[in-house]
Fold peptidylprolyl isomerase.
Amino acid sequence: MIAAALALLAADALPGTPTAAEIMADAPEGAWVAPDPEDTLYVDVPSGRIVVVLVPEMAPRHVEQLRTLAREGYYEGLHFYRVIDGFVAQGGDESGEKDKGSAAQTLAAEFEVPMPAGLAFTPLGHADPYADESGFVAGQPAGRDPEGGTAWLAHCTGAFAFGRDEGRDTAATEFYVTLQPQRYLDRNLTVLGRVVLGMEHLQAMPRGALGTAGTIEDERRWTPIESVTVASDLPRKDRVPVEVMDTGSDTFRRLIEARAARADAFFYYRPDHVDLCQMPIPVRLTPAQDGE
Amino acid sequence: MIAAALALLAADALPGTPTAAEIMADAPEGAWVAPDPEDTLYVDVPSGRIVVVLVPEMAPRHVEQLRTLAREGYYEGLHFYRVIDGFVAQGGDESGEKDKGSAAQTLAAEFEVPMPAGLAFTPLGHADPYADESGFVAGQPAGRDPEGGTAWLAHCTGAFAFGRDEGRDTAATEFYVTLQPQRYLDRNLTVLGRVVLGMEHLQAMPRGALGTAGTIEDERRWTPIESVTVASDLPRKDRVPVEVMDTGSDTFRRLIEARAARADAFFYYRPDHVDLCQMPIPVRLTPAQDGE
């Protein structure tokens, strides 16, 4: 009797409209992409590994400098020293001393770039108050200005970006990861890519005191950066076998529709909308391949 | 020379438009509200205390049952057993066994309610694709339907809500807190309030395996709930002296404007928009008062 009553009270599924789970179960192998190891960065902290996928076409100078700094071991022994709940976790050299002996240069801003010819832009298809058009580029949330012809990576959760001082061309070594969407930062800082695995390590870092936006005062609460490594510098067997859904695939386009439609019977109110930063971009780990 | 060059490259501040920091520094004492201890819940986990402020007017039946369950010690020894990165942390009785000996009843849904006469609705003043109108009620983000006359608390980060099965009137004891905005859940579940302090404890909880949405398989990774307490049941000296900005205050209205304007010189691109879930609602701890 109870089961029957529940069934009567349940919302109706939308017939003929597949759910995200059904689309994922049907996804062909071709809908998944293994990021280029040269564009993949491992940030190791005591609790584990954070995997960042960079998009060099969207921030060529910053990505090149980041690879150089990683390869010279610049970040080893530095810290996440500015962590603000619901905002960002920022890492680098709080003292500013270490820049002197490194390849670090202040970089010309890459807040937005001419839309790279080699990359596809998959429109979200829903209005976005922070961009003329929003969508996805190379497995990452992005905005673009169709008139101006520029594009930029968006500050959804997990955006990996370079910090800067007040001047636009002052970024050099400091990076941050957004712990929540912070779209107002779009086109004000240079986003290089996004965290695809290990957000839980960033979310678990000790925060600064309530209401303070700067450095965590107690240095014992800083999270050490053990190393920052370009994946291609490791033997293949030591790399994380991560794959990201191709945001240009038919599967991903169907997932966007499913997220807006919410066809499953759980939903009573269907917004017919999905926000750029509430659209998950699926990530998976593949079993290690023999003979590679 | 370097400083001069930086100054030339910096964006211009908008003259005459105060920044959020300036407004906060000027905020009168009357812009702060101490939540009613009868509407304040402490969820204690091993790493510390999570402070939840409930809005009984927005979910009267659910808040009443939650207080009853807290007072009978229902949640003691239960767990956060379903924690999904970027989605929710869910707590309660995974086995479903404990309900039998408790006051728990399945509750008629309170997804949205007639706008309570005693509460003010402060409009955000910016378009929101998830609500006819969005804004703030009793220090919490909310939506409303001016034609239908209903309102609801919104699923921004830290929303405290009851889980349910497929049927709309099936919520009883399980609760969840959103770790990111999940606005598509608005009007599909009953939100009771929000976390005002201690989100870092929820964000640090061990997650389930990548790609799984259910219970964390390894029970050793569940986070124990040590206790759930209504603040008014503790002596005044043991309560957390928290205050939340009055979202009906002139100070808060000015903060909304400042967040949309981004007048400080750091910003080169100003979106003239603020998203409901990207509008912080300030919280502070007051020094304990003598003689109270």
